[in-house]
Design brief:
5 strands
Length: about 150
């Protein structure tokens, strides 16, 4: 999860929503990624999708049957679908997402055999997101001419 947090910090530094992900198989990182939506002008360029694609390319296989995905934010419906299609065995995430969370919070989009572990480094993952959106809101208020009052 620490490497996923480093990936999230890279996303933040690039002006992206700070979400990072890694795919691990047999204690080895085989895929990693962070949000690239803004950089690629691609709404599907989520950290999980990039990490899963990277892992599949590394293995030359679209199935990641014994792999674990570590991600700093609970996956959205699109990413939950990618997790199902890739047959990832386990998903470990940090911060819950009450709006788009698709493994436990808002929706339950998963295969019954998918193991899910939530709340891992949740405070650290949540802090990255909260600070990012707090900073973004300040910029929006500044550029719109509205005050904080």
């Amino acid at each position: 999860m620490r490497v996923a947090i480093v990936e999230a910090e890279l996303a933040r530094d690039e002006g992206e929503i700070p979400v990072g992900a890694v795919v691990v198989l047999n204690d080895k990182i085989i895929g990693r990624g962070h949000n690239r939506v803004e950089a690629l002008n691609d709404p599907t360029a989520h950290a999980e999708i990039i990490a899963i694609t990277s892992a599949c390319t590394f293995l030359s296989d679209q199935k990641l049957k014994d792999a674990t995905l570590y991600v700093t934010l609970e996956p959205c419906p699109m990413c939950a679908g990618a997790i199902m299609l890739s047959r990832i065995k386990k998903c470990v995430y940090g911060a819950s997402d009450p709006i788009m969370g698709s493994l436990n919070s808002r929706y339950n989009i998963r295969r019954p055999e998918l193991e899910v572990l939530d709340g891992v480094f949740s405070e650290e993952c949540s802090k990255l997101l909260k600070e990012f959106f707090k900073k973004r809101r300040r910029k929006m208020i500044y550029f719109s001419g509205r005050s904080n009052q």
